[in-house]
Design a protein that fits this description.
3-stranded antiparallel sheet, rod-shaped, alpha+beta
C-alpha cells in the first residue's frame, strides 16, 4: 500500500468503466446498370427474385434503369450487398446477358 494518508474506515473507491458504443455497420447501395442487350423482363425477374421486390415496384425500378441508365435496387450491409451483386452476375451470365450490377457506399 502506498505511503501517505491512511484510509479511513468506511472510505470506498469508485471504479468507473467506459462503455464502448457499437456503431451501425456502413451501408452499401446495390446499383443496376442499363445496357442495350438485357431484356426488361430479365431486369424485372432479377428485382423480384434477388431483391424481393413486388411486381409493381420491380417494374418501376426497371423503368428507372431503362430511362436513367441505372437504379438503386437496395441498400445493405457490405456482405449482403456483395452477395446480391454476385447473384445478379451469375444470373446474367447464365442467361447470356451483359447485365451489370455494382455496389458503392451509401
Amino acid at each position: 500500500m502506498p505511503k501517505g494518508k491512511p484510509r479511513e474506515q468506511g472510505d470506498t473507491a469508485v471504479v468507473t468503466e467506459k462503455k464502448s458504443k457499437t456503431q451501425k455497420p456502413k451501408l452499401w447501395k446495390v446499383i443496376l446498370h442499363n445496357d442495350d442487350f438485357t431484356t426488361m423482363e430479365f431486369v424485372i425477374h432479377v428485382l423480384e427474385v434477388v431483391f424481393n421486390k413486388e411486381a409493381a415496384v420491380a417494374h418501376d425500378l426497371m423503368l428507372q434503369v431503362h430511362t436513367r441508365g441505372m437504379c438503386v435496387a437496395g441498400v445493405y450491409t457490405y456482405e449482403i450487398a456483395e452477395t446480391k451483386v454476385a447473384t445478379v452476375e451469375q444470373m446474367a451470365k447464365a442467361a447470356e446477358f451483359p447485365f451489370l450490377s455494382t455496389m458503392e457506399p451509401e
